[in-house]
Amino acid sequence: MFRSLALPEYLATIDPVKCIRCKRCIQNCGWGVYSWGGDKVLINTSKCVNCLRCYHYCPEEAIEIRPNHTRYKPNACWGYNAIRNIKRQAETGGIPLTGMGSDLPYPILFDNLLIDACQVTNPSIDPLREPMELRTYLGKKPSKLEFVRGADGKPVLKTKMPPQIKLSLPLLFSPMSYGSISLNAQKVLAQAAHECGTVMNTGEGGLHEDLLPYRSNIIVQVASGRFGVNPDYLNAGVAVEIKIGQGAKPGIGGHLPGEKIPLDVARARMIPVGTDAISPAPQHDIYSIEDLRQLIYAIKETTGYKPVSVKIAAVHNVAAIASGIVRAGADIVYLDGFRGGTGAAPSIIRDHLGIPIEHAIAAVDDRLRQEGIRNEASIIAAGGIRSSADAAKAIALGADAVAIATAALITMGCTTCGKCYTGCCSWGITTQKPELTARLDPEIFAERLINLVHAWEHELKEILGALGINAIESLRGNRERLRGVGLDTQTLDILGVKPAGR
Amino acid sequence: MFEIDAAGLKYRELNEMIRGAIARGEKEIRVKGVNGQYYIGSGLRDKTDITLEGVPGNDLAAFMDGPTIHVKGNGQDNICNTMNSGKVVIDGNAGDVLGYGMRGGKLHIRGSVGYRVGIHMKGVKKQSPTIVVGGTAGDFFGEYMAGGVIILLGLDTKDGEPLAGDYLGTGMHGGVIYVRGTVDKALCGAEVGIAELDEEDKATLKEHLTEYCKDMGISLDSVMKKGFKKLYPESIRPYGNLYAY
After folding, report:
1. pLDDT digits (tens, 9 = 90+) for B143-154
2. How many CB pairs lie under 8 A apart between chains A and B?
3. A229, A468, B156, B179: least buried by Cβ within 10 Å?
């Protein structure tokens, strides 16, 4: 086979003067870019993915990773990626895989929305001196409350409350399975969720026994591969999630590559070592809303009626689908937008299917309100939440809470290089190789994720204070406090927000 | 023996009664007048024998972990959905999507089954599921199979009548399917190989069929008289070449 004609994306370079031949770059690179040539480090730059592990661990700052400036002839139609993908496909006949959310320059409407603030006519609130309520309950809410008089004459709630998941703030961690990420990465999520009063989600790979101490901060997932699902598992967490789809790959299943299926993961999933863990495109017991209802209640019967969440990718008809999901008995609808991340997806799917989360939240919230069933389920929004401002905007558009995954991984060292599917992650996050996963010390990295959540928590309180409201509940679906900039009339109409200046 | 009359009961009431009986330590439960109630035995634990008279509804024994259920009648859809352990015996026919994602235990059916049966069954050495179908099966039988054993007998069929529908074993990457008589390669998924049984296969088959024949009250010898073919995954990684890295 001749050398690949797909250009290397990055040029890994070592300054020979600064380099002290310590070989740390060779040890640290999970992709085998570096090797020892007897008297100097040899570089195979075509393997470099720009994850910057070597850069951070070079004691002499001798390493630089540069974008490869050698490009094909400039062509406004035939861009670099288009040509490079064709060359790769010509060489392999395969579907190019990718990781993380889409990196193409689609509009991000969060960046076209601005939040209101108080000036003079209504006072803003200082969250440093006044209480600010971020507590969030996920689950069905009753459509009316009934009270009776208690023995002491005070009213007592008579309405039986449906089961709720209590969160200290409207933020949780998105599903990422044992297999797609390392057990240590899952431990980081579990510890941080426990410390921050929120929940992590097992994804579809079973629940490792090491996570059992955190069961009150865990949602367990049931997806089409049914990996790890048994009655113990279903009852292990605070809720069960049925995964129908994922924003990064709507409508297709998942193939966790065989490179990430060593013995431990194979055992947890009950499949052969080194096979691709196949999650079929649909769940073959769900071909309709009626079938979905059947699985929701099968799970409820098995768990003594714990809340059930249904996760779908945001697609064109998301509002009607969400309405069906709520009527099927789901307690939570989890919407994953177009920009949502993945451990492995065909790039053609990730970059071209679905709709962004902003439109989906607005459409679903509108539809459920119009049908008078908005109280029947909570909405979790995910897929490209990069900051507390994105979270606040998502909540103002109508979400009850947001879920983050990429942001959480970034606290563990992730640089969004997008090569999660290779199982070679130098940061020990999306790999199962013991020498790589050992790099991710759960204690140390949980601290960093906890820091992030606390920082966002403070920022959310500041945003609420500026808005002059003291509870996140008052921001929920409060689109009056959003304004659009640079958006056309129809988009403003879909989002239900006024243009800035109005 | 504890008896329940299911006539007119909603599934939630019926299942609460069954769970209550098990909690009280009942080891044998007979439910009369079953008429389409969903989720019977779903998520049930412990060793209990449950006999159902009538036709239970969908998701019978979903996520079940331990009990034995004997259905004196036909079954409907989604039986043994993601079941972990235990056994379900159906005297009649059953519907679609049986044993989806099944991870242990046994499903014995005397009659025929519908579409999408045994999809994505999985197993390891310690725990492995089995489905035995006495009659014929519809399309997608044993699709994406990752582990366990499926046996298709085609009893009472005429010579040359196909026992399974199209896409038999498509995407199979583990486990084994035994088919009584012959198999047309054209019905099978591309990932499936067809072979004669070796000694180990014969021992496995005999073990499973001995139990099946006992459950159904039929003669093992007459079932074994006809030869079997073995369907196996040609690769444990059928889609390894699908992607470019």
Report:
1. 999 999 999 999
2. 143
3. B156
